[in-house]
Amino acid sequence: MDRRRDGAPAGARAGIAILTACAALALLAPLLVNDRPIVARDPTGRIIFPALRAGRGVASGSGDVALLWPPIRRSWRDVDLAATLQPPSARHPCGTDLLGRDLMARMLHGARISLAIGFGATLLALGLGIVLGGAAGLRGAGTDLLLSRVIEALSCFPPFILAMALQAVGGGGIGAMVLAIAIGRTAAAARFARSETIRWRGTGIWVAAHAAGASRPGAALRHLLPLVSGPLAVQAAFGVTHAILLESSLSFLGLGVPAPLPSWGAILAEGRGSLDVAWWPVVFPCLGLALTLAGLSWAGDRISPPIVARRLLR
Amino acid sequence: MACSGGGRARAGIPRRLLAAATRAAVALAVAALVAATTTGCSPARDEPPGRSTGGRGGRFVFPLAIEPATLNFVSGTDQASVLVERLVADSLVDHDADLRVVPRLAASWEIAADGRTLTFHLRDGVRFHDGVACTSADVLYTWERIMDPASHAVGRVDAFLPVETVEAPDPLTVRVTYREPYAPALRGWEIPILPAHLYRGADFATAAANRAPVGTGPFRFVSWEAGRRIVLAANPDYWAGPPGLDRFEFAIIPSADTAYQALLAGEVDYARIPQAVAATRAEDPEFRRRFSTVRYVPLFFYYIAWRGDGSNPFFADARVRRALGMAIDRQGYVRSVLHGLGEVVTSPFQALLPPAGDAPTAGAPTAGAMPAAGAAAADAPDPETAATLLDAAGWRRASTGGLRRRNGTPFRFTLLVFAGGEDHVQFSQVAQDNLRRLGIEMTIERLDWQTLWSRLKSGDFQAALSGFMPGPDADSLYGLLHSSQIDGGQNYAAFRDPDTDAWFLAARRTLDDRERRALYRRIENRIVAEQPYAFLFAPAVIAGVNARFAGAKASPQGILGHMPGAFALRPAAGGS
Amino acid sequence: MTGYILRRALVSLPTLLGITLIAFAILNLLPSDPLLTWSDGAGPVSAEATSRLRDALRPDSGPVMRYATWLFNLLRFDFGHSLRDGRPVTAVLTEALPWTLILNLSALIAIYALGLPLGWIGARRRSGTAAAGRALLLFLSVVPPFAAALLMQRLFAVRLGLLPLQGTGAGGAPGPAAAADLLRHMVLPCTCLALAGWAYAARYARAAFRAILAPEAMAAARARGLHGFSLARHFAPNSALPFVWMVAGIVPALVSGSVVIEAIFSWPGLGQVLLRGVEGRDYPLVMALVLLAAITVLAGQLVADLILPAIDPRLRDLVARDENVHG
Lengths: 314, 576, 327
Prior knowledge:
The complex is a heterotrimer.
Chain A: H1 8-32, E1 33-34, E2 39-41, E3 47-48, E4 65-68, E5 72-73, H2 103-139, H3 141-156, H4 159-170, H5 174-201, H6 204-211, H7 216-252, H8 264-271, H9 280-312
Parallel strand pairs in A: 1-5
Antiparallel strand pairs in A: 2-3, 2-4
Helix pairs in contact in A: 1-2, 1-9, 2-3, 2-5, 2-7, 3-5, 4-5, 5-7, 7-8, 7-9, 8-9
Chain B: H1 9-38, E1 59-64, H2 79-88, E2 93-95, E3 101-103, E4 106-111, E5 117-122, H3 136-147, E6 163-170, E7 173-178, H4 185-188, H5 196-199, E8 219-225, E9 229-234, E10 247-252, H6 256-265, E11 270-272, H7 275-283, H8 285-290, E12 291-296, E13 301-306, H9 318-327, H10 330-337, E14 342-344, H11 383-392, E15 396-397, E16 404-406, E17 409-410, E18 412-418, H12 422-437, E19 441-447, H13 449-458, E20 463-468, H14 478-481, H15 498-509, H16 513-530, E21 533-535, E22 537-539, E23 541-546, E24 549-550, E25 570-571
Parallel strand pairs in B: 1-10, 18-19, 18-20
Antiparallel strand pairs in B: 2-3, 4-5, 5-7, 6-7, 8-9, 9-10, 11-23, 12-23, 13-20, 13-21, 14-22, 15-16, 16-17, 24-25
Chain C: H1 2-29, H2 34-37, H3 47-57, H4 63-75, H5 89-124, H6 128-142, H7 145-159, H8 176-212, H9 215-223, H10 229-264, H11 270-279, H12 283-311, H13 314-320
């Protein structure tokens, strides 16, 4: 009797459910956990939304009348030196960090930042890689030569130097970090896309599609994406968590998101020095990462085997 | 693709649950493991794991966080090089654990009546490790190399800029003449003496002695395994007698946490204890059996420089600077984050001993023959008074709260911080929170060291958090406070006060200690009133020393940074 | 064959040049002060001393000239001198390179050694223990390298005393005892480096094996009478491809993990050298490092391109037509 892979639909659904939950949590974090009201009326009678004004450091005026508070009234940035490194308790479900800030609030707000960095960098890398590799494989000859050199250069350059340069020039920030991490990961995707494109170009499908009048980029995209999505999905699943971990190393070296933004990587880096007495700043971000990775790989399970099989059996 | 899905579906779901349950169990197990390994107890064994090296009794291993760039005594001025050079070479004079000047290579000295000439009398019979005699010619050569820009003696030149001439009338006498009386002159000669015979005729930058130094010190150089360790052996012919140890090893251990774990594991014999565990460790009987502890406050403090030259609308006003200084919670930081291991600094002169000669009171954490005058050594930040001061200076909040403004300008500025410093980054976040409650928005910009340095030197900043290492003499604060040091020096706050300038110069020119103290007291009062810098705190260090060794003495420069330092280390009597 | 190699090398030359140019540009555009680079610039330095020394330390030509000089010296295999201590760059690199190589290669071997079998088992049969093993690896892979390193240090070196905490061993005369000492010192750092790679390798291997061992192919092979070891050997060539590609996913993790792991375990490799070099704007050192890394990566790709056609005949035509299949 054949062996079949395990119940992929169920697993994939679970994975997607986890991912959706994470994304929802991340997006809704400012409305769930905040020390500012969601809706308020300022002294002139205007309706304002203080909770969404995340960036501004100074709290809104005391003259505002709050109309709707978030379910959990807690701040992720309030320093409380009297309550540093408190273990998880009813008051602080995830404990407090080195400066007395509530870790749960920081984890939730950090989810947004970290997932944005992870997904952003990975998707950017994949997109750039597919475009670069696909174009190189399609065009051939001169373009291929040039683009291949670019791909080579990308694969050889240590991302750490790039991150440092981008930060010094751009003053730090999430965008610079996403760019730095993405550039470091583009090459692998590009190489794979390129070789797949070349192989596929040698088959009859390409000639047929072209003869049928399909435009080159259109045909390429339609046929190329299924080809590369399989292994790239596995790469992507790990890529997202790897990007977040890379962000942690960069934070540790001082090149991370600007303080006091609580990306998971920053929380990890800050928790390093006190690991002997406080496990919670390190364990909770790790659990978050594990959850993300589990969700991604469960969801990714569904995609890879059929595609890979179809390709190799050709 | 004919048969798909079907057959395994009924077994699929329990498997998924099993996998999920496995993951959860694994997560719990790992969390338990984490808890078990990190919560407090000391190692379960009595003795450190056996190491395969022999001669344990007289071998001391000391961790270095950075590898020295070079062991050339003149150009190697980073902290790691300086430590190694202290053991391998002698200087004319040195300081003891209380920071008093003591003789080393120079047996005695005298200052001429006009205060401009300093004459050293060297010890007789001192030899370099290769047997060649050490004479005044070597001292002269060392000075020449320091003053030669081509030898890149960064960090050593300052002490000798006021020198007019150096003469060696006979092999055991060195006569130094200064342009005018210079109070810190004697301490300037705490520089290791080069072996001139190994450098003459060789390229100074690439001579072999830079990687294999030869000096007159209590330990002689054996080997330098790049990136790993520097090994020294006792010099039995040292002029003060052989040192207490047979071998001294510097192990390159970049991570401070690893160094501490290495102490616990028995791989090094000294390490700083991290602040988070220092209190609990000191009480643990097992720890106290295996290690002795030393505690000291290094000569170092953190400060925030407010650029007060008018390039920004905030910090030219002394009321604003005073208000901000009052609002920042240093006390809470030292208490909570440093676990009490540190001192709040309200004046830069606080920890400095009086100029040489007076009875010292150092070693103890509350050193200071110069207690902070003027502004109270506050126990807690005072946001109310700060708010009043800010209002008086024109920075007011709208009645509904929010950001402070003056003539429409919001009070928003950027603080530059060194990205690689834990205390730098953490404290800046505390200050950010303090000021936020006051209605001031401070953005933190973390920079690497070179970028920060360039911004500081060029004055291209509004506020910056940095650290300062004063020397044992109060004159070392000249660089921070004198107006001549604004352009290209360390006076980052652009503090310009003619009285302070004059007092500094006067304190340099007189050799009378009482007069100097009075002058520095006046400077201190002025600084406290003007607050060009917000002085923050000085972190303290608790370190563990393997109980197999005795003779470790703490000073503001650690257990090695004074005389006798490493010389006095020896195996403890009846050592295990 | 030799012609192919030479052609590839020639074609990669512009890439290498481009990389060094980018590295040089970055390091020179970032703010820097030679006063700080030299000997880590210690001690308070007054304005007077600074102006004296700055002239001596300032580079004597503009950036374009300096790059051109560096390039010219490169042709004579002279990599220049480090700006931190004046030593030849080759000396600094040759001290650190072997340590990094040993560590990373061992980690790579360890990743494959554990990842492949787990992937194979997971693909071949539905095994609870394999699933549990993969779950464990999954969790381990999201533990940041420094956390894992710290935990393992505390557990294995301090608590249990089984393994050395840090360093490379006592050194001494080469021989079996010194080799054993080195291996003992390598266990912890290698494990930490391999952590992230294991889960990835196991998962990738499982996906690849699953596809390769697709039922139709299996049925066909079994129908031909293959089973057991000969079955495995039948599928081996096709299986090899993904694992060559897998390296591309693993190596970045190794390289970026190296810096932190080397710092924690006091491993005297290139990680610390690179870190100090970039922080200190020591551009001759960093450029040599970048060049070295680039050559290594490109050489690896070249080797892969030589191996792949031998495994997969379909690629032989492409190689013969001089197309760069691996990119």
